């Protein structure tokens, strides 16, 4: 069943979009990621223009993350205080990111920038997570408990605050900075930023894995909602028809994903996520290197 997307100006199969939304929703519930880092490249692959994919995907993440957070709140695995600190940083970052996105869009460079950002970030994060998770699984198999990394410099910073749900007493500066960085990425890449935030919360802040997923989703809801609003009012690149189809699939998928995530060990979850990140990164890098469409479009733009 083909459906025409007015802002993207392309026709796409509606069931394909519902299926993609559902698949990314499952990942959202399992891993505490908004799923945008997978969905946005998948939208590129089916022919949605990058500027529309980024702005619309931010909208879909709000729904799947909200659905996931409700499930985590019932389990009391959301650190609301930590989520609020991350959120304040995230809103500042999102505002800066949308400004940068608008500047690059005016220069005609936004499509290339978005794809390059994906290749770089997914490659680095996927590799780090894969190696770390593999080490954790090997240690668990050999009977040694995986050591929790405690970074002393984080604990020596000023403006300390108690985060009871996470069992931490640390400075608010690192989580606020993580929030700013993730907010910028949300605006430029159409992601919730969970694929950066989740590892940062575990390894940098030392939060327990069971609290990380729900807290990450809580922050993602507001930052991506704010990003969508900014894109819709300044770029007019949010495709409502596309958003609704992805949203329906995403909400259903998030509930299923939360149930699956609760049953799998944390190390296995992380290695699965790392594998998916690397797969998407490889496909994007392949497209950028093999398909010369960017060169032609840039050449055409220069010829006017």
UniProtKB/TrEMBL annotation:
Pfam families: TauE. It is found in: Cell membrane; Membrane. One of its GO terms (cellular component) is plasma membrane. InterPro entries: TM_pro_TauE-like, TSUP/Inactive_protease-like. It is a multi-pass membrane protein. Keywords: Cell membrane, Membrane, Transmembrane, Transmembrane helix. Its main location: membrane. The chain crosses the membrane at residues 12-31, 80-101, 113-138, 184-204, 211-230, 236-257, 269-286. It comes from the Bacteria. Belongs to the 4-toluene sulfonate uptake permease (TSUP) (TC 2.A.102) family. This is Probable membrane transporter protein.
